[in-house]
Automatic annotation (TrEMBL):
Entry-linked Gene3D superfamilies: 1.10.1370.30
Keywords: Carboxypeptidase, Hydrolase, Protease
Pfam families assigned: Peptidase_M32
Source species of the chain: Vibrio anguillarum (Listonella anguillarum)
Single Gene Ontology MF annotation: carboxypeptidase activity
Protein name per UniProt: Carboxypeptidase M32
Domain of life: Bacteria
PANTHER family hit by this protein: CARBOXYPEPTIDASE 1 (PTHR34217:SF1), METAL-DEPENDENT CARBOXYPEPTIDASE (PTHR34217)
Amino acid sequence: KKTVDVDATIRSGDLSPIFTWLADNIWQKGSLLTTDELVKQATGDVLNAQYFQVHLKHRYL
C-alpha cells in the first residue's frame, strides 16, 4: 500500500499528497463500503480503540 509521510508533508507545506491519498483511499470509496470495511482497507487493521488510547497517553501524559 502506498502511504504518505504525514509529518514531512505537513512540514513541507504541500498537502496535496495527503489529499490525493484521502481521495484515492477514503473519499472515492466512502459510499461503497461500510465503515469497518473502509477502515480495514485504508489501514490494514480493524477499528481498534487501543490505538486511540495510546495516542491520548502519548499526547497528554
